[in-house]
Amino acid sequence: MAASVCISHHLVVLVLLFSCLVVVSSFSLAKEAVCPFNSIYSFGDSSSSAADHVAATLSLPSPQPYTQRGTEFFESGLSFATPGATIMKPFFFLKNGIPPPPQSHDLSQISTFMKFFYEDCFSFHDCGRNNKVIPKALIFMDQPGINDYKHAFLHGKSISEASHLAPEVVETIKNSIERLINEAGAKTLMISGILPMGCFPSFRTLFPEGDSIGKNRCHRGLNMFSKLHNDHLWQAILELRLKYPDVHIIYADYYKAFIAVLKNHAFLGFKTNNLMKACCGSGNAPFNFDVQKKCGEEGVAVCSDRASYLHWDGFRLTPEALENLMDTLFSKKGFVFPELKVGEETSAAVTRRHFRIHARVGDISSVIRHLLFV
């Protein structure tokens, strides 16, 4: 009798949950999104596909690499991202006792953008701030500065030493934004903060101090450093908004969005035991990361269940984690300041969540069937 009552109680709860999920899913899909942009121009590290997710969220075509498309395609949006790009020039690293990275820096990305812009605008439209293309585009800067700090940490800089680099890094980002506004006539720019570095296997390996670990298994000091950079960036954006009141400068809070994903990892399908492990790594405990053995090299294994991992190679997120991060960024109020004027929900994000919800609804249905036939 007691077992029967217990099963009945669970059935009521599960049926109610099933009904709520279906209602929420149907209600969300009924919302419409309107995109005010014609194209996206992205800058940052080409190893990240964040710009593609932004494009999908806004129902725009993904920006293609500028190296594969000529100036005749400029107006449809392009990606100027390059592998491992830093925001700072080589001299910045040299004066701070850091060997300069071999990759190109983001300033060269913007210079390349301006070259394409002027070559194209002389053919199709007015140049300068009166052009008809860039004001209708979204300029997306994905984690500017993250590779500068990564490079500093990989060359032995402490968190305290890296903290002194933040003001100059952010000032350079600010100057880059101003150049895009003044020379190209950008009207809408989205600049993301950096992710919580203390939650990544690579940086946790570089800074293994046990007394710095918070409740979420992240390195407290590294996360405070990430917040420091983001606070500087937020202040710079506020100053730019005052200086250019007719320009929409949007801050994308990657930090808070990632923490939200981390807190809800089980619901999203990420295993607790894998939260701080790289899917593609050397196998060394506890983070499955070795700076001397990179993903793709001989002897470095790849996990068989990537979808249950947040981290791909220690520095980058898995595609599943990145998708959840971007969905969270655009679907939760408070992660994008100010909110993009695309309605309460965007069609792409809602559709993806719709399929995930119904996948879970299917799981709940199987549980109900199991209880019915116990």
Task: Describe the fold and architecture.
There is one protein chain. The chain is built from 13 helices and nine strands. By secondary structure, the protein is an alpha/beta fold. The strands form three sheets. A five-stranded mixed beta sheet has the order 1-4-5-6-9, with helices on one face. A two-stranded parallel sheet has the order 2-3. Helix 2 packs across helix 12, helix 10 packs across helix 12 (319-331) and helix 12 (319-331) crosses helix 13. It has helices at 2-29, 50-57, 90-95, 106-124, 146-154, 159-163, 166-184, 201-206, 220-243, 254-263, 265-268, 319-331, 347-372; strands at residues 39-43, 64-65, 78-79, 137-141, 188-192, 248-252, 280-281, 301-302, 336-337. The protein is globular, with a radius of gyration of 23 Å. The protein is 47% helix and 8% strand. The protein has a domain at 39-255 and 335-354: Rossmann fold (3-Layer(aba) Sandwich). Keywords: Glycoprotein, Signal. It holds the Pfam family Lipase_GDSL.
